Amino acid sequence: MLKILITGGLGTIGSCLVSKLFLSGNEVVIYDNMEIGNLNNLQIYLNEEQIKKIKIIRKDILDKEYIAIAISDCDMVYHLAATLGTLNVVSQPSRMLNVNSLGTHIVADLCNSAGKPLVTMSSSMVYGKNIKKTVAETDDIFVGGNVNAGLWWYAISKIADEAYVNSLMLENPEAKIMIVRPFNVIAPVQSHIVGFVFPRFFRAAYLGEPLKVYGDGTQRRTFTWAPDFVDCLLLLVKKQFWRNTFNIGGTEEISILDLAKKIIKISDSKSAVTFTDPQDLFKGQFVEIPQRVPNVDFLEKSIGMVPKTPLNSMIDNFDKFYKTKIYEKDFDLSRF
Fold first, then answer.
1. Measuring CA to CA, which residue among 38, 317, 329 is closest to residue 193?
2. CATH number, domain 3-187+224-250+293-309
């Protein structure tokens, strides 16, 4: 049994990771300021008694004194804490850059000096507007990027993270660090507030509101079911694939317009699809990526598996969650 620290442990990936590590017999400590994550997110995986056994430190990742104590008292760290979501990135960019870059530098330095294994999250955004049908870990990054456009700053923060931890590995041949690039990891606990598309669309469908599609809706995405993502991540750690960078993501792509239509159909909603210029919503700081699909050959070669949950199953799982919750007494869809 290990004592494992998970920063951002109440988020979409974090809550799923916490539950799987806890149910495997590990002692789990969550470090989360609850800016995006929510304690309720654990409830779809664990019961009340189980949750009570998990230590939760409600502090900011930039509070070096507290994160230093937490890291010193654990065996390894999964660093998931970040400011993310289009609205957060555009509305508080300096905060985002500090949390994502300085926060990662603090955690990585502490783990490196103490000899603690570290798994850190990057982002599929680092690939920029790479025109390849699928993007691999060795492909060019920040293709078509522009430092004057606000949404690119999120990608820059993650590129800075990758550069920094790679510099630590260069200086310390014994450092056990792994970089993971997630591709649109989803679970029903996600909040619509910061801009995630699945909860935005489902919430609108069940409230009878328009599903707002950015641009013309032809942009294509893949999505990754959180339990699939976590299964792959845990196997990478179990097999000790330190000092590598991995894409983890689903490969079944869909246009955002088609996704909206599927959600309206499955929810039996009377909502309409409307098209909006995201530049108007995000102060001219929005960047649209036409297509983002991972190449997961390296992942499959390394662990013999990749995320496999079909897109229709993810949509069905979301629908069952919203369909159940909307009829619960005192349920407030504004949290989702």
1. 38
2. 3.40.50.720
